[in-house]
Specification:
The protein is mainly alpha-helical. The protein contains 15 helices and two strands. Helix 4 packs antiparallel against helix 9.
Length: 396
C-alpha cells in the first residue's frame, strides 16, 4: 500500500535526521563552522553550529531514496499513485543547498546568492514547477510563457528569502515549514493529487528529527543551507497542480498556507522602504522578535506554529468553496490575522496608523518651514546688505 511506503519513508528520514544532526554538529564544532553571538542581531548566548541544513538535506534524500525503491516493489496500479520529484527540481534543491552551505561558511554577496537563486528557479521551471498563467488574452504562446517565467521567479526567489528571514528564532523555520508542507499536502490531496506525498513525507520526517536539536534552546542552527533548501522545495511543491478551479484563488490558496513567511517578508519590505533602509538590511523587528519580547522563545515558536495551522486550515476550507465563499473566507481570515498582528504589536492599530500619518504630516510641514527659512535667509541678507551698505566719501 502507498501508505506503508510513505510511512516507511517518513520514519527513515526521521531516524536519519536523528543520526545525522548530532554528527554534523560534532564536525562543525571541531572545524569551527559556528555562528558566534555579536550582541546585536545575533543574541544567542553561546557559539552554535550553523550548518544543520546539510543534515536535513541528507536525511530527506535518504527518505526519498527508500520510497523510490519501495515503489519498484509495488504493483504498478499502486506505485503509479506515488511519484518522485522531477530530476531538475531535485538538482535545483541540491544546488541551492550547497550555495547556502557556502554562504554559511564564507558569507557570499547578495548578488551572488541572487544569481544562484535565478539559476535554480530556471531548473525548477524547466522541471515543471511554474506559475500557470490565467486563460485569456495571453493564450498559450510566447507571451504567456514569458509572464509565467517572471511570476515563477518572483514566487520562487521570494519564498527562498522569506523562509530565510523567519529563521531567526530557535525552532521557528523548521516548525513553520513543517506545518506549511502538511497544509499544502492537504490542499493537493483534496484536489485528488497524492503524487508528491513522497516529498512531503521525506522532508517532514527530516524536519521533525532536526527539531529535536533545534527547538529552544537550540544546539544547532539550520543556516542558509537549510532555509534556502526548504524555501525552494516548499515553493516548488506549492506550484504542483492547482488548488482551486478559479485561477486567482489557485494562486492565493498556496500563499495563504505559507502566510507566515509571506506576511513577514511583505511587512519587512514595507518597513525598510518607509524607513529608508536597504532591502537586505538585517534587523530585529520581525514577527518572532515581537513575540519574543512578550513571552519565552518556546511559547513564541508554538504560537507561530498554531498561527500557521490556522492559516493552513483556512486554505483547506477555501479549496472546498466556490469563489464567493472562498473570497469571504479570505476576507474574514484577513481580519483575524490583522487583529492578531496588532495584538502582538507587529502591525499598528488604525489609531496608531492615524497617529503615524499625523506625525508624518507635522514633520513634513516642519521640514517645509525650515526649507522656506533657509531660502529666505540669503534674500534677507542681501536686502540688509543693500540697505546698510556704507556710502563712499569724497575723494581727497
Amino acid at each position: 500500500m502507498p501508505v506503508i511506503a510513505l510511512a516507511a519513508g517518513f520514519l527513515v528520514s526521521l531516524l536519519a535526521a536523528l543520526l545525522f544532526v548530532p554528527a554534523v554538529r560534532r564536525i562543525a564544532e571541531r572545524v569551527g563552522w559556528i555562528d558566534a553571538p555579536d550582541g546585536d542581531r545575533k543574541v544567542h548566548d553561546r557559539a552554535v553550529p550553523n550548518v544543520g541544513g546539510i543534515a536535513i538535506v541528507a536525511a530527506a534524500c535518504v527518505g526519498i531514496a527508500v520510497m523510490t525503491l519501495a515503489r519498484l516493489e509495488l504493483p504498478r496500479s499502486i506505485s503509479g499513485i506515488l511519484t518522485v520529484p522531477d530530476k531538475l527540481v531535485v538538482l535545483g534543491a541540491l544546488v541551492i543547498a550547497l550555495v547556502g552551505f557556502w554562504d554559511d561558511l564564507k558569507e557570499i554577496s547578495h548578488r551572488t546568492k541572487f544569481a544562484a537563486q535565478l539559476i535554480v528557479t530556471a531548473l525548477a521551471f524547466l522541471g515543471g514547477a511554474r506559475v500557470m498563467v490565467f486563460d485569456g488574452p495571453l493564450g498559450d504562446g510566447a507571451l504567456a510563457l514569458a509572464v509565467s517565467a517572471v511570476l515563477t521567479v518572483v514566487w520562487m526567489v521570494g519564498m527562498m528569502n522569506a523562509v530565510n528571514l523567519i529563521d531567526g528564532m530557535d525552532g521557528l523555520a523548521a516548525g513553520v515549514v513543517t506545518v506549511a508542507f502538511l497544509g499544502l499536502a492537504g490542499v493537493h490531496a483534496l484536489g485528488g493529487d497524492l503524487g508528491a506525498l513522497v516529498l512531503v513525507a521525506a522532508v517532514c520526517g527530516a524536519l521533525i528529527g532536526f527539531l529535536r536539536y533545534n527547538f529552544a534552546p537550540a544546539s544547532i542552527f539550520m543556516g542558509d543551507s537549510g532555509s534556502l533548501f526548504l524555501g525552494y522545495v516548499l515553493a516548488a511543491y506549492a506550484l504542483r497542480g492547482t488548488s482551486h478551479p478559479h485561477p486567482v484563488l489557485a494562486l492565493v490558496i498556496p500563499a495563504v498556507v505559507m502566510g507566515i513567511p509571506v506576511l513577514d517578508t511583505g511587512v519587512s519590505i514595507l518597513r525598510r522602504k518607509m524607513t529608508g533602509k536597504p532591502l537586505f538590511f538585517p534587523d530585529r523587528d520581525h514577527i518572532h522578535h515581537r513575540l519574543q519580547a512578550q513571552m519565552s522563545t518556546r511559547r513564541a515558536a508554538v504560537t507561530l506554529y498554531l498561527f500557521g495551522a490556522f492559516l493552513a486550515l483556512g486554505a483547506l476550507a477555501m479549496t472546498q468553496m466556490d469563489w464567493k465563499g472562498a473570497s469571504l473566507t479570505f476576507l474574514g481570515g484577513t481580519a483575524v490575522v490583522y487583529a492578531f498582528l496588532c495584538y502582538v504589536h507587529y502591525l499598528p492599530t488604525p489609531s496608531g496608523i492615524a497617529q503615524f500619518l499625523g506625525r508624518r504630516r507635522r514633520l513634513q510641514r516642519l521640514m517645509d518651514d525650515r526649507s522656506e527659512l533657509r531660502n529666505e535667509a540669503p534674500r534677507a541678507g542681501r536686502i540688509a546688505h543693500e540697505r546698510f551698505e556704507p556710502v563712499a566719501g569724497p575723494e581727497r
